[in-house]
Amino acid sequence: MADRQKALEWFRERRTSVMMSGAKAMYNEAVKALEELEKRGEGKWIVEKDEHGVTRGRCPKCGMVQYAGYTNFCPDCGAKMTEDGT
Fold it and tell me: What's the pTM?
């Protein structure tokens, strides 16, 4: 999170100082993407059993279900998962 915040500050600073419109647009896109990641937040896989007794993880942000191999990010909404749920 601290690295993401540093990157966001860096891109915000650069977009105000750059003169080339293409570079300014690139910095604006980077700021927009990083701000979107900030909104997604962090979570922890909610471990539960499905109707067949199979263990699965559910994203607390969007509800997406993942069965095998919990990832560090929800593949649907991009929320960062701080623990793997196991």
Answer: 0.51
